[in-house]
Structure formats: structure tokens, C-alpha cells
Specification:
Shape: globular
Distance between the termini: 23 Å
Strand content: 35-45%
Order of helices and strands: EHEHEHEEHEEEE
Radius of gyration: 17 Å
Number of helices: 4
Helix content: 10-25%
Length: about 170
């Protein structure tokens, strides 16, 4: 059976460009975030099944990051303070509950660091970019081609499904 691998996260969408060579306070960063969304980091192992990749090899591969699914918008004030979220994942009449805990306590903490780390090195962060800052409960495995509902209790819900692409030559 083929499974989709996902990591529940919160995405911060940049509303105004963070200019290079400038330091930003937490309040300024919060003001320049135009929206917060439920998000899923999509994970895909790209090494062959019979190869046991080392951590360094996986790190060089972006830790198997395949992409980002940007879900519905959620309340920004609640998202900034969401250190713990109960996450409910329902598929085929079965609900699994996860006690989600952000790895950096507050989900905005890595955002504050990232903005000032990049801008201090001359790299601007442009309006429209979505930034994720850490998984609430690690990698979750869900079935392909079956409806899926995910709820971040107190923040929002989303419904989706994943399908495997078939490539023919």
C-alpha cells in the first residue's frame, strides 16, 4: 500500500518584503505577516528502498521535503501563540488524535530568527512567500486516494486527499 507522508505545521505568509541589511523586531515581523494558514509539509523519500541513507545524505536531500500544502487561513493571533495543538486526523471512519507540540515552543520563534538571519546576510524575503517553522507531531502516514480530514483543534479544519501520479512513457 502506498502512503502519503505529511507533517502538520503552521505557515506564515509574508505580506510585505523583509528588506536585506535590516534588523526587525518581533512586533515588526508580526505586522508584516499578512496571513497564517494550516499547512502540511509533504514528505517523499527519494532514495531507493534498498539503500539506507545516512542523516547527512538525507539532510543534503532537504530531509525528504517534497513540497508544501497550504491549507485554510487561520486566526493569526491564535497561530502565533499555538505552542500546543491537538490534531485530529480522520480517514475511513477512523480518527487518530495527536497531542501536537511545536518543537520551538512558539511557532513564530523560528520565524523571528529566520527573518533576521537572512536579512543580516543580504537576503530579502519577498511578499507572498509562505514560511513553515516546525512540525507539531512529526511525520504522519495517511492512505492515498481516500478522503482525509485534519483538524487543528481551536484553529481550523481541512479536507483533502492525496493521489499517486502515474507516469506512462
Amino acid at each position: 500500500m502506498v502512503l502519503a507522508l505529511i507533517e502538520p505545521e503552521i505557515a506564515f505568509v509574508v505580506g510585505q518584503t523583509f528588506e536585506a541589511h535590516r534588523h526587525y523586531s518581533e512586533a515588526e515581523i508580526n505586522q508584516q505577516i499578512s496571513a497564517t494558514h494550516m499547512a502540511l509539509e509533504l514528505i517523499q523519500q527519494r532514495f531507493s528502498r534498498d539503500y539506507s541513507a545516512s542523516f547527512v545524505e538525507k539532510l543534503a536531500d532537504g530531509l525528504s521535503n517534497q513540497g508544501l500544502y497550504l491549507g485554510p487561513e487561520i486566526d493569526k493571533a491564535k497561530a502565533l501563540m499555538a505552542s500546543k495543538i491537538q490534531i485530529l486526523v480522520t480517514q475511513q471512519q477512523t480518527t487518530n488524535t495527536y497531542d501536537g507540540c511545536h518543537p520551538c515552543d512558539l511557532p513564530a520563534s523560528p520565524l523571528y530568527w529566520l527573518v533576521n538571519f537572512l536579512t543580516a546576510r543580504g537576503i530579502e524575503i519577498t511578499a507572498g512567500q509562505a514560511i513553515i517553522t516546525g512540525s507539531y507531531c512529526g511525520v504522519l502516514k495517511v492512505d492515498m486516494d481516500k478522503p482525509l480530514q485534519i483538524e487543528y483543534q481551536g484553529l481550523g479544519k481541512m479536507s483533502l486527499s492525496f493521489s499517486e501520479l502515474s507516469l506512462s512513457q
